[in-house]
From TrEMBL:
This is Histone-lysine N-methyltransferase NSD3. CDD domains: PHD4_NSD3, PHD5_NSD3, PWWP_NSD3_rpt2, SET_NSD3. Residues 293-320, 554-581 form a coiled coil. It holds the Pfam family PHDvar_NSD. Residues 528-544 form the Post-SET domain. It comes from Pterocles gutturalis (yellow-throated sandgrouse).
Amino acid sequence: QICESSGESLVSCEGECCSVFHMECLGLKSMPEEKFICTECKNGEHTCFSCKLPGKDVKRCSVNTCGKFYHEACVRKFATALFESRGFRCPQHCCTACSMDKDIHKASKGRMVRCFRCPIAYHSGDGCIAAGSLFVSSHILICSNHSKRNHSSSAVNVGFCFVCARGGKLLCCESCPASFHPECLNIEMPEGCWNCNDCKAGKKLRYKQIVWVKLGNYRQVCCFWVLVLCVWWPAEICNPRSVPLNIQGLKHDIGDFPVFFFGSHDYYWVHQGRVFPYVEGDKSFAEGQTSINKTFKKALEEAAKRFQELKAQRESKEALEIERNSRKPPPYKHIKSNKVIGKVQIQVADLSEIPRCNCKPSDENPCGLESECLNRMLQYECHPQVCPAGERCQNQCFTKRLYPDAEIIKTDRRGWGLRTKRSIKKGEFVNEYVGELIDEEECRLRIKRAHENSVTNFYMLTVTKDRIIDAGPKGNYSRFMNHSCNPNCETQKWTVNGDIRVGLFALCDIPAGMELTFNYNLDCLGNGRTECHCGAENCSGFLGVRPKTAFATANEEKVKNAKLKQKKRKIKTEQKQMHEDNCFQCGDGGELVMCDKKDCPKAYHLLCLNLTQPPFGKWECPWHQCDVCSNPAVSFCEFCPHSFCKDHEKGALVASALDGHLCCSAHD
């Protein structure tokens, strides 16, 4: 911890920090006979591994062998930190590169190589480690963030915009060659130093990556080096251990890495300020460079060929990984009961507060499905010390975990699912929905982090306003149950020993071999408007949208028949006003708000109206107000809610090719 080098005669601190020291660095001549405790552990004031400021308000990483301390505000800045019931796992237990690539399942698995100076870690191997990192030992490195080089004085920027590929007045990144027009980024020209988004996010180049290199002001004698000074040259980033020994011996610093130049097959040490990634089909960029000779043309051909080789290797590896992962569900930790995270608490009732039912031990099925147990009717689980039925009580399914046998299966279009191995009676307890019990604040943080990492699968279910079950990282088999608009199970909130828990119960008799499903509608968080693939006849088309009822389906047939009869008889009959079954704004079905204006059949989703709850009282839809001034409309678009009053109707609508129906400028 003092000289940052490995060697013999290391003394380990037996306190909380797990640090090691050389005896000579501590001023010791021999190994201490008693247990060695470092100064920080003795004083109880550890230094934050992120901001390097000491204090007693720092907290230790929950991994036993880690020993790193952080301020909570500091560790929360890292997306790779994982908060658990017992604390947090610091960023050094998650690969930074995989996290950048949004591969969160892979990020925390496998062997890690950790930075000695900051909370950065990578998987061992060239695929993840940032180019320019310096290895201290087989599992410890100093990452390229700790380069002593002043990038702002040595970066060589390109002369074109990375967005539109044109020149002009450019905004140049101080840490890499990237340049942009401020208008292409929709920003004003900033004052002082500026870094691009990739550099701000900490995105790094990796080994075996094809790049463009420009040496800038280096002085060399041969013609090739003179040419490299002038133009961007294609090269491959190499691991220092794979280059010739004479190249390894050249002067370089942390953050520098060797590159292999195509065409000339020379090596040189460069840094991030002089290279940018090669993109497939970079011919237009190359053609725009001057002084192109035979060596450069050869370099372009070799770079394109090598790029395709590396791409094929990467795709083959990814295909093998996908095929391997398709054989089993994504990893999660199996738990039997809810695990508390943060400030959430599990309530425990006193025995005197638990309700007592009126069942008797002599009853045929005391507290069973067909009994008249008061607790079961009120969705309370009986307590073994309170229930008069004693050991014969059949209303203790949550506590005893009496789940019917089920198995995880792979479905056609809905990922993994759960299938029962035996028949289940209507009303029977199927499973308890368990996971990490979190509050609303933590829930929103997790959803935000999931969106940032392109995660589309959510397992969050609301118990109460500030109690949400997240079965994503931890849960039981219930987390695999898919949504259905016509489910065979439902969620019920039961009170078990004073605490509210969520159980899944059969809505009908379920035969063995049937997939178990429940309706996510209004219960699960994080889905948004996700397309539904349940295949039910009454499918709403989206998760979170109420399915069509049997009444609505029957009404569709009645309306069709009524219209046919009306045409045949050619008489006007006064009938109840019927509304359309699809939203007039987006065209989808689901739960709709109906217009109350006489003879208006239009209906809308609350979401399409930008409303959070149904309007109060008599309500007229937007179709009846002018888009410009909100006065009563006289001209209407027949394809969307746009309409106009007398003063604004001129030129607003035109006849469409569909039987001359009027349409606004929003339609072709």
